[in-house]
Model the fold of this input.
Amino acid sequence: MEEENNILRETVAEFCEKNLDEKKIETEGITEKLTELIASQGFLGSAVPDKYSGSGLDETSYEIILEEIAKYSPSVAMKIFILNSMYYPAVKGTSAEDTLNDASTGKISVAVDFINKAGSIESESGKAKGTLKNILGTDADKLVVFGDSTSIVSGPFKSDSRDFMGFRGLKFGDLHLDNSVQVLDKHSRMAEIMENSYGPASAIGLGMISGALQKAIDYTNVRKAFGNKLRDFEPVSFRLARFRAMESILRNSLYSRIDPYYTFNFAMEHLVEIARYSVNTHGGYGYFKDFGVEKFYRDAIVMKSIFYGTDELRKLTEHVYSEKINFV
Amino acid sequence: MFEELEDYRQKIREFALKEFTEDVAAEYDRKESYPDDLRRKSLSLGIVDMQNPAKVLIAIEELCRVDAGLGIALTTPYFGSEVIMLFGNDRQKEILNDVYSGKYILGLGVTEPSGGSDVAALKTTAKKQGNKYILNGSKMFITNGAIADYLVILARTSEDSNPHHGLSTFLLNTKSKGFSATKLEDKLGVRATNTAELQFNNIELSEDDLIGEEGKGFYYIMMFFNISRIYVAAQSIGIARGAFDKIKSYIKENNVKDEDSMFRLSDVGTRIEASRQMTYNAASYLFEFKPKPELTSMAKAYSSETAVYAAEEAMEILGDESLYESVQRIFRNAKIMEIWEGTSEIEKLVIARYILKGE
Done:
């Protein structure tokens, strides 16, 4: 099993090295051609069952794919995550599950309103009206919206896309809806879906930590100051060494499935810290896009801001105390 | 001293709120272009008073509080002027007057592609030939590099076993033959400021272009860092306060009452207050021409880390709301504070050295 996982890891890494030009992705977005390529490798619908044209991979294989891709392009990893960990569980078993075939093969793109968690749209006579702010993937063909219920809205969408700080490969902006809507479930599946996504979200966090840290280690291995390599300065290399140890602990925790709450908390708590320090080690160069390290810092804070707030800390705390707590 | 300038602080605050609207700040950030129209307007209103250092700090802080990209762009056309003010000759001081009046934009070139922190290791040379110096080399990450009329340049004029010796400062006219500047793009933040890579190809400098004494350049620049690091501390406090403003508004508007948010708000506020006290304390020694480098470095390191801390806290506390442009721009602007004018690591080395020296 371990050998299979290693082969998968190497295969994904090789694919990324060859095909994921992160600077291009950040500038031009994830193109249809790239989406098709990712789909053709079976990465796009990795955790979607094969009956929906997905790869039907187990949790570990899916998370390895997310981790390896996030080392190169957090945007691409997020696109895969949205389909497999958000869209698929929202539509499975509903009248919209047939859309998974086209989504897994890259024929259509999907988005999920997991940033707003608003569901503030009005729906009447089969039409969704209103504006949804801050959608990752404004070029989607299908959008899942959570409110009191779980609904799916069909594109194309009228959008105000704008530059976004994080996950720049995905188009970001507001959607102005006047589109057909279909209620999939009278209950919102949001909370359950978010909680079940801790493992995959941690895998993206781990990949970003790993990608940012490797940049810092590589740079400090060659960059000199005061006649010595940066790695020769204890405050720099001690810190990077500690981060690598933390990365390893996170990876072990994720794949040994000790406790998804703890793993997710650990990933989110350290993601920004490590990405920030990786920028630091590059000095002025770290502040520029060309060196490919500042994107990890941007993506890290967006990831943490979206996925890790008071709700998640309360869930963690109740998990520790094993009961519901009446917070003051 | 600072308490007496509350009216001035209010004037700057009003200017920044009026001119640095969200649309304006977002546009300059997006286009990554220098706001020369705003610079001219700020000059006409006397927003930056280089004759009064306390006012300079207040202006930097209040402008950066609203938008650091624009705030820094408006307060750096004078960057490096202190080197001329302290060590320059009469002709150079005449040029400086034109910088203060807004006719010229100034910049300072120390950092090179091969290194920023290790100033003494610079490779740019100014070799004496007769009564001229021939400047060759390059500089990196130079603020105002592609828009400056004049640049204060640090270059090696002679080899010495002590690398701190043999460095000299020059005032370079950017119209000089052999000078070229390439604007550097795709910065994470402070995108309204101009940043460039400079190339010097056999530029002829006269003896009159030498600032102060030959061979004293390293010490002049270290003296300048005692000033510019205070400026960065003020920029950082401004950024931290801008983030703090966002956190306070969010908490009030959304009636947030959970204790975790209260504690975080409290920590940001405490760090800002500490940064301000440290910065004003370090500045008070500087204003009496008795700078204490350890206090300056403490203020710079702590304030810049506070700016980053406050910006990250704003992103996290506001959560989904933080994805709007103004908050994420604060976050992107903050990071450079820990890098320019000496990284936090360099500041800590300075602090440790002076602490031990004091014993």
About this structure: The longest helix of chain B spans residues 217-253.
